[in-house]
Specification:
224 residues, alpha/beta, Rossmann fold, DNA polymerase, domain 1, 2 domains, six-stranded parallel beta sheet, 10 helices, 6 strands
């Protein structure tokens, strides 16, 4: 019996070219709070849950971060990101890949660690209608990546066992989450992580971007 796959996509750095806008938005929010953190360190945390971001921030800076300050950081990031969102574009091949899956009857969903206040801007840039396609955001689950909750919820929205899912993401946090829920992890280089990092975190295959994945879709269970 053939097991039909479903595809679960991260959003930032996977379908839309938005990672560095998020980095700059976090930098602005941190600077406003007088927290000095290098840009490259911020980039390494993009894609994980906000709670883990804060925990790592505490570890690296040694600062005492109150709940009020965490909320100000989140709001500051969201406000800064909204100002930068006009620069965000779909990654090469993203729309074509999603259209190909739809045309071939292969279910797909989006699962992002971002909250809807920022994810909505990216979904609009991508041209996806949340009324027709399942979109699971940080607001809807208890834990975000590297916990697998987002992907498990997205598979559930598609009515599919998580073990049949192909998780496509650009960050090690996506691959770790995929491994934890026994899904197949496929990494993309379009978010700034290297191929070795993605493979060590559990990626079964690594491609440049959505366009490259579409060219090799049969390698991960898609059928032309």
């Amino acid at each position: 019996m053939r097991i039909e796959p479903v595809f679960l996509f991260d959003l930032d750095g996977t379908l839309v070219d938005s990672v560095y806008q998020h980095v700059l938005a976090w930098k602005e929010a941190l600077d406003a709070e007088g927290i000095d953190l290098s840009v490259w360190r911020i980039h390494r945390k993009i894609g994980m849950s906000g709670g883990l971001f804060t925990n790592q921030l505490l570890r690296e800076t040694g600062l005492d971060i109150s709940a009020e300050r965490v909320d100000r950081l989140r709001q500051g990031h969201a406000a800064a990101y909204r100002r930068l969102a006009g620069q965000v574009r779909p990654l090469p091949g993203a729309r074509e890949l999603l259209a190909w899956l739809t045309d071939n009857g292969i279910p797909w969903a989006i699962a992002t660690s971002g909250r809807m206040e920022t994810a909505a801007l990216n979904i609009e840039a991508l041209g996806v209608d949340p009324a027709k396609v399942p979109v699971v955001t940080r607001d809807q689950v208890k834990y975000a990546k590297p916990d697998p909750d987002l992907f498990v919820a997205a598979a559930g929205r598609l009515g599919a066992p998580i073990e049949t899912a192909v998780v496509v993401g650009d960050a090690i946090w996506d691959m770790l989450a995929a491994t934890r829920c026994r899904a197949l992890g496929v990494g993309l280089l379009s978010g700034g992580y290297g191929p070795d990092e993605l493979r060590q975190a559990g990626a079964f295959r690594v491609y440049d971007d959505p366009a490259d994945l579409l060219k090799h879709i049969d390698e991960v269970g898609g059928r032309r």
